[in-house]
């Protein structure tokens, strides 16, 4: 199947990457080429084959339900591009 | 010369007090000062007084007889590992000013073992690339040159800065990360050793994530014994990484010299790709002959799903990338582009913060995970991945290791292979299958091609059997006697 511009626009919106129309067409062409290439997988028979999740080298383990980390608010906030006191700041989202 | 030593030689020299860790560190800082402008191997060089202070602490431990595994050894750190208080960029504009308030588990272990960090090495943006040309801080130059040709060659990628630094004498060794070949392919292109351990062997905690089911940290060094030494320092269980293995860490530093007599070496038929350059095929044959002479039994094996490895990888890795990189939203850390709405901040920040290759991979991943396409692409790829892994598990019922070329070519020039992404992805054709299966694999330099560029062979082992990989690598290294140096080197013309 070939990738159209409307789908490319929808994907960019889902990924929250703001692209201009000219850039969208370049991206569409690149992705379409890659998708055409990965379509070779359609010839592989996977009937009855389970999907591989992770590399399954170790079983996931459980740990005690206990607080083991924290009390580092200022260190975490030090990375924020914009902040106000102990808060991240964003544009108003509620009317 | 201090910048030409292996880790093992430097460790012995320090222990015998032939030179101090301070002298060793200073020699490397001087080499970086002379060559880094050309090579662009480091994005950040640590302040001289910090490097020398770490070296002095190591010297004090040698003096008191309390030296640790990596004590006083100057190494580079791929700029994908978070280092506390030291800028960590992932070679992206998005993280151009990011200073982590914490240390990654792997670098914490290396520091605990006494390593002296020199700086943060360049890479492809977010480790996505095979030529180190997508870095927001400029391309890395391969220190090797073709004979009679001054063309700028790529060091491979994504750990291209680490590979160039180790090859050119700007670090005794460096950390890399490997998602589909990012340690092994640049190691081959730069004539050094690169080991991708078993998935789960080294903690992923604090390493900036690309594709979480594939990412694995490993050593990039000048010898196989060094790779064992450094892996021993890097590996180990970490409760902060849910996929970290709690198996004991063997003494990898002692694995390289072990006899390989009687080991069974598999030669996978499917790696004889049509169009493989004759020189690569010849080098592979030579490697087979060397291992046979060392007492190994050579066995033909089949990994029937090899040809689907790359296509599977280019669905699974972008899918995981799109999920992992969703965190770069301009709110909590990293760069931010202002806009009047929250969505506007996200969209502008991500459009301007990510380079084209990273954007394309996020979009590809978003597509294969989106409603209507998930089953056809992502689920399908996960099933093919099961088949690829089964190929390896079945092959390892017959043999102890596999031997293949590391890459389908020697280093190519900047500007070649650039237009068609699929052409660039083909670089990883021999490295991706082992990543998909999670098995350990190492590239060892074994010779030069007719234009004077290094070629590597890859040894792939069973899950958690890095020791056998190191032993076979040691045998290959001993037989090959690779002692060539690149055109640009700290010891050239000094």
Automatic annotation (TrEMBL), chain A:
Keywords: ATP-binding, Ligase, Nucleotide-binding, Protein biosynthesis, Transferase. Transmembrane segments: none annotated. Belongs to the GatC family. Allows the formation of correctly charged Asn-tRNA(Asn) or Gln-tRNA(Gln) through the transamidation of misacylated Asp-tRNA(Asn) or Glu-tRNA(Gln) in organisms which lack either or both of asparaginyl-tRNA or glutaminyl-tRNA synthetases. The reaction takes place in the presence of glutamine and ATP through an activated phospho-Asp-tRNA(Asn) or phospho-Glu-tRNA(Gln). It comes from Acetobacter orleanensis. This is Aspartyl/glutamyl-tRNA(Asn/Gln) amidotransferase subunit C. The gene is gatC. InterPro entries: Asp/Glu-ADT_sf_sub_c, GatC. Its EC number is 6.3.5.-. One of its GO terms (molecular function) is ATP binding. GO terms for biological process: glutaminyl-tRNAGln biosynthesis via transamidation; regulation of translational fidelity; translation. Heterotrimer of A, B and C subunits.
């Amino acid at each position: 199947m070939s990738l159209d511009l409307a789908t490319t626009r929808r994907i960019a919106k889902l990924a929250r990457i703001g692209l201009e129309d000219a850039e969208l067409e370049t991206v569409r062409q690149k992705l379409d080429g890659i998708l055409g290439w990965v379509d070779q997988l359609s010839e592989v028979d996977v009937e009855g084959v389970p999907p591989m999740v992770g590399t399954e080298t170790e079983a996931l383990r459980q740990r005690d339900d206990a607080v083991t980390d924290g009390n580092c608010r200022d260190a975490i906030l030090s990375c924020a591009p914009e902040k106000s006191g102990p808060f991240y700041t964003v544009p108003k989202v509620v009317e | 010369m201090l910048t030409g030593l292996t880790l093992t030689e430097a460790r012995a020299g320090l222990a015998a007090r032939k030179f101090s860790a301070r002298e060793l560190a200073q020699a490397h800082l001087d080499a970086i000062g002379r060559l880094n402008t050309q090579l662009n191997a480091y994005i950040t060089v640590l302040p001289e007084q910090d490097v020398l202070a770490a070296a002095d602490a190591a010297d004090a431990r040698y003096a008191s007889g309390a030296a640790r595994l990596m004590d006083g050894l100057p190494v580079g750190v791929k700029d994908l590992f978070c280092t506390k208080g030291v800028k960590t960029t992932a070679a992206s504009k998005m993280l151009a000013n990011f200073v982590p308030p914490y240390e990654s588990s792997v670098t914490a272990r290396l520091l605990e073992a006494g390593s002296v960090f020199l700086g943060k090495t360049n890479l492809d943006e977010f480790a996505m690339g095979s030529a180190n040309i997508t870095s927001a801080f400029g391309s890395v130059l391969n220190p090797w040159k073709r004979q009679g040709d001054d063309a700028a060659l790529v060091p491979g990628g994504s750990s291209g800065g680490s590979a160039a630094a180790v090859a050119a004498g700007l670090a005794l060794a460096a950390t890399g990360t490997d998602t589909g070949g990012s340690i092994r392919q640049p190691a081959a292109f730069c004539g050094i050793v690169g080991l991708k351990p078993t998935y789960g062997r080294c903690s992923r905690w604090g390493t900036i994530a690309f594709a979480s089911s594939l990412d694995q940290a490993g050593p990039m060094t000048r010898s196989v014994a060094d790779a064992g030494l450094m892996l021993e320092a890097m590996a180990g269980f970490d409760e902060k990484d849910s996929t970290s293995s709690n198996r004991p860490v063997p003494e990898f530093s002692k694995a390289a010299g072990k006899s390989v007599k009687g080991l069974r070496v598999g030669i996978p038929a499917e790696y004889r790709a049509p169009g493989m350059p004759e020189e690569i095929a010849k080098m592979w044959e030579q490697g087979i002959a060397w291992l046979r002479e060392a007492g190994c039994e050579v066995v033909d094996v089949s990994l029937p799903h090899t040809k689907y490895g790359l296509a599977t990888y280019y669905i699974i890795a972008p899918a995981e990338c799109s999920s992992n990189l969703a965190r770069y939203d301009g709110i909590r850390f990293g760069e931010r582009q202002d806009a009047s709405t929250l969505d506007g901040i996200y969209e502008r920040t991500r459009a301007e913060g990510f380079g084209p290759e990273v954007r394309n991979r996020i979009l590809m991943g978003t597509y294969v995970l989106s409603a209507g396409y998930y089953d056809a692409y992502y689920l399908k790829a996960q099933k093919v991945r099961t088949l690829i892994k089964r190929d390896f598990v079945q092959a390892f019922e017959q043999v102890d290791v596999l031997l293949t070329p590391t890459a389908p070519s020697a280093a190519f020039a900047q500007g070649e292979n650039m237009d068609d992404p699929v052409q660039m992805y083909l670089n990883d054709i021999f490295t991706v299958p082992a990543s998909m299966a999670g098995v350990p694999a190492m590239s060892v330099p074994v010779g030069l091609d007719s234009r004077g560029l290094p070629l590597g062979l890859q040894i792939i082992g069973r899950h958690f059997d890095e020791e056998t990989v190191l032993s076979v690598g040691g045998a290959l290294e001993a037989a090959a006697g690779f002692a060539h140096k690149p055109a640009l080197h700290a010891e050239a013309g000094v």
